[in-house]
């Protein structure tokens, strides 16, 4: 696997996380990273107003 470098501010970056218990994962990661969650067809997307965004 290549070594991670530095991400430039404003460049999109995402990670996908599969979770068996979506409700528990939302509570855990929402509390840990202050993520907000948006329901989309077939997936839930999380976002942060702070240091970046994610998809779950």
Automatic annotation (TrEMBL):
InterPro entries for the chain: Glyas_Bleomycin-R_OHBP_Dase (IPR029068)
This one is known as: Glyoxalase
Q: State the organism of origin.
A: Kitasatospora misakiensis
